[in-house]
Amino acid sequence: MGDFADHIGKSIRLLYYPPYHSKYNPVERCWEILDKHWNGAKLTDTETMLEWAKSMTWKGIHPVVQLNRTAYEKGVTVAKVAMQAVESRSARNPLLPKWDILIRPACTV
After folding, report:
1. Strand order from edge to edge, sheet including 100-103
2. How many other β-carbons are positioned within 10 Å of the β-carbon of residue 83?
């Protein structure tokens, strides 16, 4: 997000949904509709699951569905110095420090 803020030259505000507030998150509502859509179907293989996901609609629109076979490494962390550089560009709302973060573009000289 920092690179994107630099690219557009504007600050970006990240607002996260707190845990257990999925009713406000549109992505979670989409998952709920998918869950109801394939309720009772035998998802015996990946292709069946993908076809069921492609056939659902949410607000009259079919989703774009594709299989991602990327294996993500566990335990990968950002070095402390790199994280300090990120935090120096960020401002956290003191009332909601975990859920409201402003990322400023890097200063250019």
Report:
1. 12-15, 100-103, 90-92
2. 11
Domain ranges of the chain: 2-103
Burial of 72 (0-12, 13-18, 19+ CB in 10 A): exposed
Sole residue written with tokens 């035998």: 42
DSSP 15: E
The four Cα atoms 37, 41, 45, 49 give a dihedral, to 10 degrees, of -10
The full DSSP string for 24-60 is G-HHHHHHHHHHHHTTT----SHHHHHHHHHH--BTT
Distance CA 63, CA 55 (A): 8
Task: Kindly report, residue by residue over 15-60, the tens digit of the pLDDT.
Answer: 887 777 777 777 777 778 888 888 888 889 999 989 888 998 888 8
- Pairwise CA distance, residues 109 & 107, whole Å: 7
